[in-house]
């Protein structure tokens, strides 16, 4: 099935357009772009740079995808932006490739939703089934786990890790890592509990949710030091996969400190 390209669109030599794609009016597709089959560029979309987009992308007007990273040390190196299948990219979204100071690549998984004016900076890694709402600012080198949701107007500090199934509340200013299933709120953001609604929507059963909730209370209890609390949780739930996900995330560490509840601080 051939692609449908509006006569006002500019498809530069070298660009690869997948079968069955629809390129709307006044779109520009650069020479290194690879656009997957069945994708739709609504109008006024710019795709450029060394950018690969999986099949069935739906990209709305004035999205700017693949332009040079907002990094003062970037000198034109051939870095990449890789976007998975079936992603929704709404108006004015910006996504930048990686840098030589980072991974050389920005990576976005499958089935992701990016709403109006969201920004994904250089060297980020975004998992599958992630939803990023309007005006979210995702700074460089961030890692966002599968099924995470970042609500409108939130700012995520560079090098921050957000665990899978986490929820970031609207207008949050996130400076620390967010544990899997965690929910953070506020400026500066603090851990306010677990994303229980998200866990239920994802199909986790009642026992799984109950175990993670109890492990959360144990982890952030003020009775012992945080390290001692981790040991207690490990002993209590040595075989629970979700609890072990949380512990593994904490043990792995990162460039940012961990988000804690307001009542609790690391020892």
From TrEMBL:
EC number annotated for this UniProt entry: 2.3.1.129
One GO term of the biological process aspect: lipid A biosynthetic process
- Every copy of the UDP N-acetylglucosamine O-acyltransferase C-terminal domain together lies at 177-257
One Gene Ontology cellular component annotation held by this UniProt entry? cytoplasm
Pathway membership:
Glycolipid biosynthesis; lipid IV(A) biosynthesis; lipid IV(A) from (3R)-3-hydroxytetradecanoyl-[acyl-carrier-protein] and UDP-N-acetyl-alpha-D-glucosamine: step 1/6
Q: Where in the cell is it found?
A: Cytoplasm
Please name one Pfam family that this protein belongs to: Acetyltransf_11
Gene Ontology MF terms? acyl-[acyl-carrier-protein]-UDP-N-acetylglucosamine O-acyltransferase activity
**What is catalyzed by this enzyme?**
a (3R)-hydroxyacyl-[ACP] + UDP-N-acetyl-alpha-D-glucosamine = a UDP-3-O-[(3R)-3-hydroxyacyl]-N-acetyl-alpha-D-glucosamine + holo-[ACP]
Q: Which PROSITE patterns match?
A: HEXAPEP_TRANSFERASES (PS00101)
Q: Which HAMAP family match?
A: LpxA
Q: Which family does it belong to?
A: Belongs to the transferase hexapeptide repeat family. LpxA subfamily.
- Identify this protein by name: Acyl-[acyl-carrier-protein]--UDP-N-acetylglucosamine O-acyltransferase
Q: Which organism is it from?
A: Aureimonas endophytica
């Amino acid at each position: 099935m051939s692609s449908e390209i509006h006569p006002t669109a500019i498809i530069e030599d070298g660009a690869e357009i997948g079968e069955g794609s629809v390129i709307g009016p006044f779109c520009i597709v650069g020479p290194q772009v690879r656009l997957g089959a069945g994708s739709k560029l609504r109008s006024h979309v710019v795709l450029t740079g060394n950018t690969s987009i999986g099949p069935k992308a739906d990209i709305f007007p004035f999205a700017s995808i693949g332009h040079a990273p907002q990094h003062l040390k970037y000198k034109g190196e051939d870095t990449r932006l890789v976007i998975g299948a079936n992603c929704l990219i709404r108006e004015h979204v910006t996504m930048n490739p990686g840098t030589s100071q980072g991974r050389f690549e920005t990576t976005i998984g499958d089935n992701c939703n990016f709403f109006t004016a969201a920004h994904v900076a250089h060297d980020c890694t975004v998992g599958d089934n992630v939803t990023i709402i309007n005006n979210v600012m995702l700074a460089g080198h961030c890692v966002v786990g599968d099924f995470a949701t970042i609500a409108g107007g939130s700012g995520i500090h560079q090098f921050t890790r957000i665990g899978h199934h986490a929820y970031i509340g609207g207008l949050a200013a996130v400076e620390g890592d967010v544990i899997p299933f965690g929910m953070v709120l506020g400026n500066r953001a603090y851990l306010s509990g677990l994303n229980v609604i998200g866990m239920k929507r994802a199909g986790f059963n009642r026992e799984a949710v109950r175990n993670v909730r109890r492990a959360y209370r144990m982890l952030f209890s003020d009775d012992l030091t945080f390290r001692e609390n981790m040991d207690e949780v490990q002993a209590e739930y040595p075989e629970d996969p979700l609890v072990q996900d949380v512990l593994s995330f904490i043990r792995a560490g990162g460039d940012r400190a961990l988000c804690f509840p307001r009542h609790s601080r690391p020892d």
